[in-house]
Structures are given as C-alpha cells and as structure tokens.
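In response to the reviewer comment on reproducibility (Comment 2.3), we provide here a single inverse folding case reported in full, input and output, so that an independent group could reproduce the run without further information from us. The structure tokens appear first.
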C-alpha cells in the first residue's frame, strides 16, 4: 500500500504521528487494530523516509522540491493565446511552483465527442503499476475504466498528438499512448504521483521505456455535473472539469529530481459522468517491444 494512495485524512494522521515522534511499530499496530491490512506498514515507512522522521513533515521539503519553479518548468507560456493548427489555445491559469498550466480550447467539442465514442468499445477497468513487481493491478485507489491508443493510431489521435507536441515543444515520440478514462458516479482516483520511483523494483521495468515521466497533460472531454475535480492536496487547488480544456503539469528534470508538490487525484464524481484523455511525457523517446 502506497502512502500517496491513502485518503488525505489518513495521510495527515500519519504525518502528525511522525511529527510527534511516534515509533513506527506503535503507529502500525494502531492502524492494524483499526482494520487496515499489514501492507499499511509500507505507507508508514514511505512517510518516514520522505520526511526524515524529524521536524515538521509539512515544512521539510523532500529532495528537490525547494525552488522547483525554475528546475521543473518543462513549458512556460509566453502569451495568453497560442495558435496551434485548427485551435487557438488559451492560457487560463499558470503556476510557477509547481509548473502547472490550465489551457482553454485545447480540443474542439467534436474532437472530445469523437474520442469518447472511439474509446467506448474498448473500455476496461483501470489498473495501477505495482511498485514491488511491476504488474498492472486493479485496486480501490483507481476506480475508472480506460482505453489506450497507440501513437498516431488513427488520424484523430495523430492530429491531437501533433497539436500537443507543437504546443509544449516536446516531440510526440516522447509521449506514452493516449489514454481515455471514464469515471462513473462515485468513481475516483485517490491522490498519487505520476512519476516512478527508481528505488522500487516494480518501477525499474517501466523506467526502461523512455526514462522517467516528466509531465502530464489531462484533457477534459465533457462537463461534469458535480464532483470529478482534479485535486492537488498540497496546493489546496481544485481544477473543475471543463470540456475542451487541458491541464498540464511537470515534475521531473534531467537530473532525475522530482517535485513532490504535484501529488494529485481525481475526486469522486458526484453526479453525471466524467471523461478525460491523458498524455504522459517521458525524458526520452517512449519505446516498447513493438516499436
């Protein structure tokens, strides 16, 4: 069980216990009595490792999080409106630390509708990478359904991937396959990081295909009636889904340093449904055995 996958209130309880100097064995014993599985001990160890077990865990910046505004800026907008092929993309929000930009008019309404219809027949329960063995497992942390499309699989996918590459100035070959996700009412993705841990055996195989993930682009394909926001707990920030908009954030640099401010998740859909398209970017060209 990963610390980033825990509910925010449980994460805070563990942080408070670490801050108070509580022994790990005592913390784990209390959590087991509360009904948690033995794997909760891993989450406790991760929290202690990240925050050093001393001082205020919310004040001690892990690794290279400090001064991340410059070192993690994979893209920085120079104007409020960016013409990219058929679209005039708008910059609606820009943060420097972490590097986060909200785009308007990234996709047209017809493109959003087409992506949804293209993915419907291929939807399967979403999985997460097991950090111990590299398997793609089902889990309570992620309760959406998804479909993946290979690079330039059809003219629609190719056009969108080329637009992303031109907008961000990042080669399309560095992108993982476009993933379409469908969240029904109550579905969510608990807070997590998109980057991988080189220290974990299960992530090493994933990292061999293009290196570390450096950035994420989430494209909203429909308007959600209630809920379904993209949340950043460490920033107290919520991005509400808006059809055609895109949310980009980056979190790794060429030295392998990671920005832990980018902890994020998808809040439960309260009413209606939620459709998004996700494109992850790597340090180098993303290659598989099929390439």
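Designed residues, in position order:
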């Amino acid at each position: 069980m990963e610390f980033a996958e825990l509910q925010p209130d449980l994460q805070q309880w563990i942080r408070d216990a670490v801050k108070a100097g509580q022994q790990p064995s005592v913390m784990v014993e209390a959590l087991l009595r509360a009904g948690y599985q033995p794997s909760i001990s891993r989450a406790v160890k991760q929290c202690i490792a990240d925050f050093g077990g001393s001082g205020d865990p919310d004040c001690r910046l892990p690794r290279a999080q400090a001064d991340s505004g410059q070192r993690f800026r994979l893209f920085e907008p120079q104007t409020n409106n960016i013409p990219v092929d058929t679209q005039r993309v708008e910059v609606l929000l820009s943060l420097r630390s972490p590097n986060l930009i909200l785009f308007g008019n990234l996709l047209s309404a017809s493109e959003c509708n087409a992506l949804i219809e293209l993915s419907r027949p291929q939807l399967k329960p979403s999985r997460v990478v097991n950090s111990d063995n590299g398997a793609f497992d089902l889990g309570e942390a992620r309760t959406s359904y998804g479909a993946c499309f290979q690079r330039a699989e059809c003219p629609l996918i190719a056009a969108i991937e080329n637009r992303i590459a031109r907008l961000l100035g990042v080669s399309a070959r560095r992108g993982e396959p476009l993933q379409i996700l469908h969240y029904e009412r109550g579905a969510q993705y608990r807070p997590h990081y998109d980057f991988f841990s080189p220290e974990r055996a299960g992530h090493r195989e994933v990292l061999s295909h293009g290196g570390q993930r450096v950035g994420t682009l989430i494209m909203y394909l429909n308007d959600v009636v209630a809920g379904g926001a993209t949340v950043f707990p460490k920033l107290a920030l919520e991005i509400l889904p808006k059809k055609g908009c895109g949310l980009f954030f980056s979190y790794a640099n060429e030295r392998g340093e990671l920005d832990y401010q980018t902890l994020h998740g998808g809040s439960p859909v309260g009413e209606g449904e939620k459709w998004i398209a996700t494109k992850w970017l790597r340090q180098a060209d993303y290659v598989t055995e099929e390439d």
